[in-house]
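A reminder from the course coordinator: this example appears on the midterm review sheet, so study it carefully.

Given structure:
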């Protein structure tokens, strides 16, 4: 594989940067707010593993359509609050900075696909002075359906005129892996040792524990 043919798309939270977004608490808070309108999501202890924020929003938006309400807007504000709080103490490893510099020097296209809002994502990139590394950043405002849907990956492939066979998606969650499978893109799982690929009908091309190992994979091609 020639490096100038290769493109790498990264998830954002806990892949490129270490954020502190409390996703379990966020999902439970969303479900509690929705339950006031009669929407039920089961036992709270099971909500974090059973639902994505997108799943909850989808059900709420259906409710809004039927009842002419704006509950989804309320939940999005809740999500943004959790994101802002979690991004306040975001950090980035030196290994990530070195890896981005390596990829750029090799002429490899680098992009981001995140379920986060665009503004806080860009603010973090600018805070660490790494925004110029990325050809495109696709956040939830840029798509109609978030990961695990494949739309975001397909948007990047189309906008950058990439060959899906030469694209690698790097992420730490099942939503990343499922999106990659649905888009026919190879998936590299970072750090997550307990993810059961068979449970989510996904295929893990490579499993790495550190971002340094991604450089080794690229050098091996």
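Designed residues:
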């Amino acid at each position: 594989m020639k490096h100038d043919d290769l493109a790498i798309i990264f998830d954002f939270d806990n892949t490129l940067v270490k954020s502190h977004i409390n996703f379990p608490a966020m999902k439970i808070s969303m479900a509690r707010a929705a339950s006031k309108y009669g929407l039920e999501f089961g036992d709270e202890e099971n909500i974090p593993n059973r639902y994505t924020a997108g799943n909850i929003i989808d059900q709420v938006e259906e409710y809004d359509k039927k009842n002419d309400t704006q509950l989804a807007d309320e939940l999005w504000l809740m999500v943004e609050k959790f994101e802002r709080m979690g991004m306040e103490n975001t950090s980035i490893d030196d290994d990530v900075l070195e890896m981005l510099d390596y990829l750029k020097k090799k002429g490899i296209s680098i992009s981001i696909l995140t379920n986060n809002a665009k503004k806080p994502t860009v603010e973090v990139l600018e805070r660490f002075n790494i925004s110029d590394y990325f050809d495109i950043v696709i956040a939830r405002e840029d798509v109609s359906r978030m990961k695990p849907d494949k739309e975001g990956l397909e948007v990047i492939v189309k906008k950058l005129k990439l060959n899906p066979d030469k694209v690698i998606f790097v992420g730490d969650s099942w939503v990343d892996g499922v999106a990659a499978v649905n888009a026919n893109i190879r998936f590299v799982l970072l750090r997550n040792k307990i993810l059961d690929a068979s449970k989510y009908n996904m295929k893990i091309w490579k499993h790495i524990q550190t971002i340094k190992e991604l450089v080794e994979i690229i050098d091996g091609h």
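Strands lie at 7-10, 109-113, 136-138, 167-171, 186-190, 206-208. DSSP finds nine helices and six strands in the chain.
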